[in-house]
Structure formats: C-alpha cells, structure tokens
Amino acid sequence: MGDEGDVTVDARLGARLAELRAERGWTLGELAERSGISRSTLSRAERAEISPTASLLNRLCHVYGRTMSQLLSEVEREAALLVRAADQTVWTDRAAGFVRRSVSPPHPGLRGELVEGRLTAGADIAYDRPPVVGLEQHVWVLDGRLDVTAQDVEHRLDAGDCLRLRVWGPTRFHCPGPEAVRYVLAVVLP
Fold first, then answer.
1. Number of H helices, E strands in the chain
2. With the C-alpha atoms ordered 57, 190, 134, 101, is the resulting torsion angle positive or negative?
3. At a CB cut-off of 8 Å and minimum separation 6, what does 71 contact?
4. pLDDT of 108 over the 80 cut
5. Whole-angstrom Cα distance, residue 52 to residue 117?
6. What are the pLDDT digits (tens) for 13-27?
7. Percent of the chain with pLDDT over 70
8. Looking at the DSSP assignment, which residues form a beta bridge with residue 118?
9. CB neighbours of 96 closer than 8 A, spacing ≥ 6?
10. Residue 125, CA distances (Å) to 29, 49, 98, 148, 176 in order
C-alpha cells in the first residue's frame, strides 16, 4: 500500500482508538496510566498525527482486550469471506523495519487469523505483554531467519521452521540478517 493508503489507514485507526477510549469513558490521562503510553503520544495517535508503532498498538490492544488484527480489522470497510490480495490491509512501522499484511483478518464466528510479517535485517520488535493472555500463535518462516523469544527462551527459526506457542508474557521478534525475513503468523484466540 502506498503512502496515501497508509494515511487513510492511520486516520481510520486513530478514529477507532479514540472511539474505544470514549466507549470506556476514559480520559487520555486514564488511558496513559493503564497503557504506560504518554498522554501526548496517545493524543497524537488518535488524531493520526503520528503513525503508531507495533509496540504502541500492542499495549493498546492489551488494554482494550483485543488482538492487533482485531483492532486493524475494525478499521476495515467491510469483512469478506474471500480476501483478495489487493484488499488485504498492509500496515507499516517504518521506524522498526516492520511490514504487516493481514492476509486473513478476524471475521465474526472465526477464531483464527493469518498475518504475513516482514522484518528488515537487524529489526527487533519487543512486545511487553500479549494483546490477549494465552493467545495461540504459530510462526512459520518463509524466507530468511527469525529469532523469537517467548517465556525467556530464544528460538532460532530458519526458512521452513514453525514455532508453536501460547503467549503468556513478553515476546520479541528479531531478524538477525543478513537478509530480511518473511513469515506467516497464525493467531488463534483462546
């Protein structure tokens, strides 16, 4: 998706984040306390003045009790059973070197989803908590190498390897290089 599409996704995402906070009757200060994110950063994200990072979205997903894919699917125009490649939402965290394609976004009545992740060489993304405790994940590396740390254990995955786990605490995704990594993340709600 080009820059114009990113701006549209960021604007819809910011509006949805503001709606979620309003639904709970929280001030920016209350959300800042719950999430550990500054009020100014939250305000700028809600107004789409900044493109939120993966880490920031993960913290907000935890506070709101949803996966990142659920949150991103809520800013989609409509859910469909067949998701054409051209219609899959692509979200980019340029600062972290992370591109996320929602291949099979959440859908009412379905517990699983598929995400394609791409990390540039050297990219390192740490999530301090799962968006949903006990979330089941299957990480299948298509190209490159990926180091995944969960429950203080580092797993080195090469092309073709698959790591299966339930997420209870912090996780880390690191691409040691020398080239980028492309992987599929299958997510199943508990």
1. 5, 10
2. negative
3. 13, 16, 57, 60, 61, 64
4. no
5. 17
6. 888 899 899 889 899
7. 93
8. 99, 182
9. 53, 54, 55, 123, 124, 125
10. 26, 22, 8, 10, 12
In whole angstroms, what separates CA 136 from the centre of its chain? 14
Distances (CA, A) of 12 to 7, 49, 76, 80, 181: 9, 12, 8, 19, 28
Task: Give the residue from 144, 137, 127, 187 showing the smallest Cα distance to 166.
Answer: 137
Sign, CA torsion 23/27/32/34:
negative
The single-letter code of the amino acid at 77 is: R
Q: What is the pTM of this model?
A: 0.67
At 119 the pLDDT is 98
For 135, residues 6+ apart whose C-beta sits below 8 A from its C-beta are 67, 166, 167, 187, 188, 189, 190
Nearest of 139, 125, 127, 123 to residue 175 by alpha carbon? 123
Contact between 37 and 59 under an 8 Å Cβ cutoff? The reply is yes
CA gap 165, 16 in Å, rounded: 30
